[in-house]
Amino acid sequence: MWFKNLQVYRFTKPFDMTPEELSEALQTKEFQPCGSQDLSRYGWVPPLGHHGTDFVHAANGFVMVCAKKQDKLLPAAVINEMVGEKIVDIQANEGRAVGRKERQNLKDDVTFELLPRALVKSSLQFAFIAVQQGLLIVNASSSKRAEELISFLRETIGSVPVIPVVANNIPQHTMTQWLLSGQPPQAFEFGHECELRDPSDEGGVIRCKHQELTSAEIASHIKAGMYVSKLGLCWNGGIDFMVDDQLAVKRLGFGEIIQEKANQLDAVDAAAQFDQDFAVMTLELVALIGALTDVFGGENRDQIDTV
């Protein structure tokens, strides 16, 4: 349940559904496994998994939801091989060429034939709503994955008025200046990883790992015109992460101090431990998001007025 990535969105209007109302709505779109001819299925499941039945988990003004996606695995190489065999048979037995439309029909037939026997891969996508702060935080490594969940949430409850959080200052300019000066913002420390990009049309990229980010070598690349597009940071001595030029947070790591907070009370069962983890994680992440937007000049709220 501990989030590894953050895609952060701002509600343009207050989220006014109660946890009970949201749970009832999500249940109408409960996840159903793939049928024999389904390529993919998407639906809501209880965040507590087998340890709960509610479709939301709520505590201290934070509301967690969980979507499950199931995909049939049909390697393109397998499909193409079978289509190729059918084409060879047609050419040999009927003495004619196979056109583009017929090739596509053969591909559709092969896919239909293989679907019932295909392996199935499932994944869970967690998100939580910080009601008082007006934020939606999705545990997704890309905006595309996050938008998939948000789109399905809109389909389920009718309206989810959110937009990505945007900072007042341009992130790549700010991160570049931090490294060039050798000074991280207050309460933050540099990690040991960054990504530098060349703004020219060629778009060269240098990825630095396990490096001293204030070294003369990295500074020389920046002075040569490259900018920082991703930067490893540590906040408050407890959370390590990478932030990119879109304010997406990745590779979250929670230190021992935070883990100890979640384990201060002996949980009687898995549900109680989940509740403790959720309470600690949400408070820490909301504080991190606030601190991160502050060091990028604060959140730009102008766009909210135009939505």
Automatic annotation (TrEMBL):
Keyword Phosphoprotein part of the UniProt annotation: no
GO BP, one annotated term: regulation of DNA recombination
Pfam families, per the entry: RdgC (PF04381)
Localization annotation: Cytoplasm, Nucleoid
Keyword Phosphoprotein: no
GO terms, molecular function: double-stranded DNA binding
Segments passing through the bilayer: none
Main location: cytoplasm
Entry's Gene Ontology cellular component terms: bacterial nucleoid; cytoplasm
Highest taxon of the lineage: Bacteria
Keywords of the record: Cytoplasm, DNA recombination
NCBIfam families per record: PRK00321.1-3, PRK00321.1-5
Function recorded in the entry: May be involved in recombination.
Family (UniProt): Belongs to the RdgC family.
Protein name: Recombination-associated protein RdgC
Phylogenetic lineage: Bacteria, Pseudomonadati, Pseudomonadota, Gammaproteobacteria, Cellvibrionales
